[in-house]
Amino acid sequence: MTTQTAGSPPKAVSRPGDRIFAGASIGSGILILASLAGVAGFLLWQAWPALVAPAEQITGGKGLVAYIAPLLFGTVYSAFWALLIATPLAIGIALFITHYAPRKLAQALGYLVDLLAAVPSLIFGLWGVYVLAPAAYPVTAWLADNLGFLPFFSSDASVTGRTMFTVAIVLGVMILPIMTAVNREVFLQTPRLHEEASLALGATRWEMIQMSVLPFGKSGIVSGMMLGLGRALGETMAVAIILSMSGGISLDLVSNSNPGTIAGNIALQFPETSGLGTNVLIASGLVLFAVTLAVNMIARWIVSRRSEFSGAN
């Protein structure tokens, strides 16, 4: 019979369930890493013929960089404007749900916002073409007439409305649910004592939000933005349906001179492409994969920094 010495910590009992759970967790993590590495390896393998091919054999005859650069610009450009539209809306909706709306109304609004995430991108694309694009033309025409000195509205507005302006609005609506959900959860985690202390010192509800809620949720807001950006970068069908792609790099939001996006270009060109053209499209997909992976890694890094914040709950 063994006796435990005084002051020594008790030994943890190893249960079969604990070992099974630990093994399953480790295996799942390894499986995710292996899947990610497999996707990256497959894309690199399929894109290699395009990476080493002469410039004149690449679609357009100017080389792989010249082919992908306008598409990458259009992808990042449309996602940037979508993020610019969705960020204040997501913060405002999340603040209203968590700090202003009555409980029943907040639950209903939260459900409706989450329901937007279940709408297929094809539906958003059809809505953008048949509803938003015609309605956007008067707005884009006014912007072109009155703000034409800005490079974003320097050309005549497209009568069809199938422009980067419409795409940015549709993408902004599409990324709104995930950004609102992240902001809502972060705002609800604000230490209650911080909020009550601000109110006890005579602050109004908005001043309490400025002093307690927003500083606490700053990193959560940024991480929500990055997650929304990752979704906007990879969107395919809505962009392919709405955008009238003309190629090239252009800052104009209201004209027919619209740069394409990588995902939209792949969706439109892949069924009719073969041989080296397929490798070129996969090479552009490899670039998109790298960009979205970097965005999501930055988002996870920002989320992990929230653990540095400590406060009473």
From TrEMBL:
The gene is pstC. Pfam families: BPD_transp_1. Belongs to the binding-protein-dependent transport system permease family. CysTW subfamily. Part of the binding-protein-dependent transport system for phosphate; probably responsible for the translocation of the substrate across the membrane. It is found in: Cell membrane. It comes from Mobilicoccus caccae. The keyword Hydrolase does not apply. This is Phosphate transport system permease protein. It is a multi-pass membrane protein. Gene3D superfamilies: MetI-like. The chain crosses the membrane at residues 20-44, 64-97, 109-133, 163-182, 232-251, 280-303. PROSITE patterns: ABC_TM1. Residues 72-299 form the ABC transmembrane type-1 domain. It comes from the Bacteria. Keywords: Cell membrane, Membrane, Phosphate transport, Transmembrane, Transmembrane helix, Transport.
